[in-house]
Amino acid sequence: MALNLGKIAQGLAGNFSQQNVADLKNEYGNYLLPNEEIQSGYVLIRDTLIFTNIRIIFIDKQGASGRKTSFKSIFLMNIVNVEMETAGFGIDDSEIVVTYLENVHLKAHTEQLLKQKFEFPKKLDILPLYKYLFELAYQNRLSINGLN
After folding, report:
1. Taking the model in full, what pTM does it have?
2. Per-residue pLDDT reduced to its tens digit, 93-112
3. Is residue 108 a contact partner of residue 88, using CB atoms and an 8 Å limit?
4. Is CB count within 10 Å lower at the N or C end of the chain?
5. Could you tell me the strand order of the sheet in which 94-101 lies?
6. Can you tell me the distance from the alpha carbon of 15 to that of 146, in angstroms, rounded to the nearest whole number?
């Protein structure tokens, strides 16, 4: 196995690198729901970020061996806002910040909003991912407000 110094450097900088969907499905397919499909995925050294048609999955391999693994999901239907910042000329990274509802039942004055930031290497074109997530947020807002 060759040592990928670029991937390690990006990982140390906190950046995700895009991965092959077939490889992700092979490794994590058992954790998906029956109708769930991987759309795209990114790896940060040992940790993985997967976008499916239902949710965003954070896979955190813990400990020295990486055998202990934590899975966390953000359901796409809970995303209500998305922000994007592109990389500059220096060592800046690109980033996407997703704001989502943590609570299951939306009731007046009980919304619980959380944010999750994803950092990507400057060479990765994050515009398609941003547009996808922003369209989702827009449709979710229409649904929440009974406008669609």
Report:
1. 0.77
2. 889 999 999 887 666 667 78
3. no
4. N
5. 79-85, 94-101, 113-120
6. 37
